[in-house]
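subagent[fold] <- orchestrator: predict structure for attached chain, return tokens only, no commentary.
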Amino acid sequence: MAKLVLDLHDIYNRGEEITRALDRVINEATEKRISTVEIIPGKGSGQLKKKVLRFLDQKHIRAKYHRIDKDSKNHGRLFVYFRH
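subagent[fold] -> orchestrator:
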């Protein structure tokens, strides 16, 4: 099972860069037919995770993936699953 990982720790305070990185990883997963994307916004205050969830909830992005799971053991990590 192929998986992409996007760690947002390095760009946590650069909004446009975060959006570009999220867009790039979602498009790459779609193009390469990858089944899972792991996004690591980190634990912090939760603001970055909320930004990621808002990005994923956009209608044109939501149409690309099947579902999202929040890691039950590590709340600083999300999984996005694709059906190809």
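orchestrator: received. Logging for downstream: The chain has one domain: 7-76. Strands lie at 3-7, 36-40, 67-70, 78-81.
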